[in-house]
Amino acid sequence: MEEGSWVRQRLSSSFTAPGNNIHSGMKLGCAHNYVLCAVCTATICFLTLGISVLYLQGPPSPSLPPITLLVWVHPFGRFRPLPDCWEQYRIHGCTLTDDKDAYRQADAVIFHHRDISKGNIPMPPEPRPRSQKWIWMNHESPSHSPGMQRFDGVFNLTLTYRTDSDIYVPYGHLIPQVNSSRSLDQTTSLRRPVRLLAWVVSNWSESHARVSFYHKLRQHVNVDLYGRKGKPLAKRRETMLGLLRQYMFYLALENSQHTDYITEKVWNAVQAGAIPVVLGPSRQNYEHFLPPEAFIHVDDFPTAQELAQYLNRLMQNPALTKRHLSWRQSYSIHQPTFWTEHYCTACKVLRRTRGQTSEVHRLHDWFYS
Ligand SMILES: *[C@@H]1O[C@H](CO)[C@@H](O)[C@H](O)[C@H]1NC(C)=O
Ligand SMILES: *[C@@H]1O[C@H](CO)[C@@H](O)[C@H](O)[C@H]1NC(C)=O
Ligand SMILES: *[C@@H]1O[C@H](CO)[C@@H](O)[C@H](O)[C@H]1NC(C)=O
Asked: Which GO terms describe its molecular function (predicted)?
């Protein structure tokens, strides 16, 4: 679906913004025939997106009938109060519930993958109410999403960090700002980069590419390691941002490498003003989300040693560093609140697409693509 996101990008002449992806029909066709799809996706996107951009921007009209959205299980089994979508996001007509008794009345049911993947949480009884939609929600990477095969042909809509999801909620995104007084540049003054390079890692596994990269890199440059294997770390996000502000660079190394899998590691660094050194999908993929100079990609250098030399050079040369920071004048950042924003975004899309049908035939293959 690269084509699709490219066209979308061109049309909006900026990075892929969330909230406008409701072209599940497109994905269906695609699942069956990739070759044809490559050709026709661009065309279909052009036609449908042209219309949808006009149609679907902004909140749905208050006059549309309301939606009842049932949250089948709280993600990772952790209860969180459900949001009031109007109060928090100015989205009309959403009733969220976690009461399974509401199943028959629900317009849609949202399932968090990790919690249903093991098969120990019963799914609702079939046949499901006519026109009810089942939503597959997942923000883990394919490598950490076991058991997807069993869900081929089960769901109607996808809700993930991938730009080609039906309901698109990335880990973060940039918002173009004409007025620099509202841009990320304002946070640049908070930066106190007295230290060179940090890495925070919670799940340490020698089998991860990021760990072997770390082993290579630290032979050439000092890396301050935090997390289970390093210095202890308070979990609160504010503390994390405070820590990152002290650093010139931050290692934003994903646990696995997959399309669009660009997580809060990058966005926290961006927020704090530390220049992210990224390991994840290709540079080209990152450039759908960030200006090219906003990050340093490990693939930019043939060896870890050359990357280390570049970081040292930047540390001693503020003029050179500016190259990686000046883009901040033109953007602000948004990081979603888990999971309230996901639910409310789902509701918004459901209201706009009421009456349409769709099926996710090949969940596993799509998510790995
Ligand atoms: C930029 O925003 C600030 C504060 O929001 C405002 O005072 C200023 O007039 C704005 N400047 C322009 C050029 O719009
Ligand atoms: C940590 O990484 C291992 C190895 O990839 C993986 O099996 C495990 O699920 C991960 N744990 C978490 C909490 O993501
Ligand atoms: C939802 O998906 C199921 C299973 O693929 C399908 O039978 C049903 O018709 C779909 N419903 C809608 C409203 O799209």
From this structure: 4-galactosyl-N-acetylglucosaminide 3-alpha-L-fucosyltransferase activity
Inter-residue contact 19 to 349 (CB < 8 Å): yes
Based on C-alpha coordinates, what's the Rg of the chain?
A: 21
With cut-offs at 50, 70 and 90, classify the pLDDT of residue 192: confident
Question: Is the same domain home to 207 and 327?
Answer: yes
41: tokens are: 């996706």
For ligand 1, atom 13, the nearest C-alpha belongs to 179
Domain count, the chain: 2
Note whether 177 and 331 are within 8 A (CB).
yes
Whether residue 98 is found in the same domain as residue 146: yes
Using CB distances shorter than 6 Å, the residues near ligand 2 are 144, 203, 205, 207
Evaluate if residue 258 carries a pLDDT over 50.
Answer: yes
pLDDT reading at 307 higher than 90:
yes
Note the pTM of the prediction, 2 decimals: 0.84
213 Cα–ligand 2 center, Å: 17
Residue 116 within any structural domain of the chain: yes
> Quick one: tokens of 157?
């809509």
d(CA 199, CA 161): 23
Ligand nearest to the CA of 256: 2
Residue at 87 is within a domain: yes
The Å distance, Cα 281 to ligand 2 centre, comes to 18
- Give the residue whose CA is nearest to atom 7 of ligand 2: 144
* Mean pLDDT score across all residues of the chain: 85
Whether residues 298 and 340 share a domain: the answer is: no
Ligand 3 shell residues, CB under 6 Å = 131, 133, 153, 156, 357-359
